Amino acid sequence: MHIFKDPKFDFVRWRWHALILSWVIIIAGVAAIYTRGIPLGIEFSGGTVVIAQFDREPSIEQVRAALDKGMPGGGSQAVVQAYGTPGLREVMIRVPQVGHESGNELTQSSDEVQAALRKANLGHFNVVGTQVVGPVVGQQLTRKGTLAMVLSLVGLLIYIAFRFRFSFAVGAVIATVHDLLVTFAFLAFFHVDLSLNVIAAILTMSGYSTNDTIVIFDRIREDARLLRNLPIKDVMNKAVNQTLNRTVISSGTTLLSAIALYLFGGEVLHGFAFTMIVGVITGTYSSVFIAGTVVTFWKGRGSAAAMVASTAGKGGVSVGAGAAAERPSASRGARSRPQRKRRAS
Question: Is residue 122 a contact partner of residue 52, using CB atoms and an 8 Å limit?
């Protein structure tokens, strides 16, 4: 299937525009994180989540007023929001503080929330879900989530440096860091909770983006051997155009799946699906514009011959060496034909 027939887009020409766009988004994201922050999910902040289903739908203000009046110390720090589809009449209440992490005291905040709702006479309700995470568990999950992202970047750097060369590895890691920063920026823009589902989506997106980058890098290496006299930027453009159909088809199908999850997956999967949507778009963008741009900056404006010489040991014999090996045999064959004729005469 070919969406583009013999594409010849000059992607390298637009690298500065792409870098400026990326910097604008990243700086705006840093400003948003600094001023408003990224809301942490229950797994990282610790606390209690109660999901209540009412017989008749109450307003969010009524539930918040009931918590302020009925909970010890008031419920000013509680987060109240509608949950699930409107027809289910479900409300999620998240209280940041929790009891001691031992025995029955672990569920103290959950019991206090339910007692406050009953006192307010908001109608009959059933608790359809509760989640309690203590501060110690939240700190452990934060540490493990950070460690997982750092180790994935280190493993990426080592693999691509071994598979290709160090400049390619640096380009891939910078592209992945770019994807992470842009994704965190959009999480801050849209105030999406940073939960374990979001961390899973970020790691999935990083692997997806890396795979796309490796496909392009592999084509760059092949084209550099065949087109060793062309400038590096021309080899980059040719490689990206050759893989453009594959990139658009694979990214498009993944993006459609993520959009379907966001629309029909329910409240639990909203954070995961939103992160995947942002990640697929950002990962495709960085594979085309960011990773190759870093390599062109690293290698300068020379021809692809230097790249061929430096990658010959990691991907097989270069075309130049193969051609040099073939020329003597061809000349020997040319000299042998007249000699045979003289002997026959």
Answer: no
Beta-carbon neighbour count of residue 319 at 10 Å?
A: 16
Domain residues for the domain of 74 are 47-133
Distance CA 269, CA 257 (A): 12
CB 249 within 8 A of CB 1: yes
Q: How many CB atoms lie within 10 A of CB 154?
A: 11
- Kindly state the helix (H) or strand (E) to which residue 178 belongs, with its residue range: helix 166-189
CB 287 within 8 A of CB 216: yes
Rg (CA), the chain: 29
Question: How far is 328 from 339, CA to CA, in rounded Å?
Answer: 17
E-only strand ranges, the chain: 47-54, 79-83, 90-95, 125-133
State the Cα–Cα distance between residues 305 and 281, nearest whole angstrom: 33
217-251 pLDDT, tens digit each: 888 888 888 877 788 788 888 888 898 888 899 99
- Of 291, 290, 279, 155, which Cα lies nearest the Cα of 205? 279
Of 98, 113, 133, at which residue does a domain stop? Answer: 133
Query: 163: which residues sit within 8 A by CB, 6+ positions away?
Result: 214, 314
Number of domains in the chain: 2
Indicate whether 156 belongs to any domain.
Answer: yes
**Domain identity same for 159 and 264:** yes
CATH number for 271: 1.20.1640.10
Task: Give pTM, 2 decimals.
Answer: 0.75
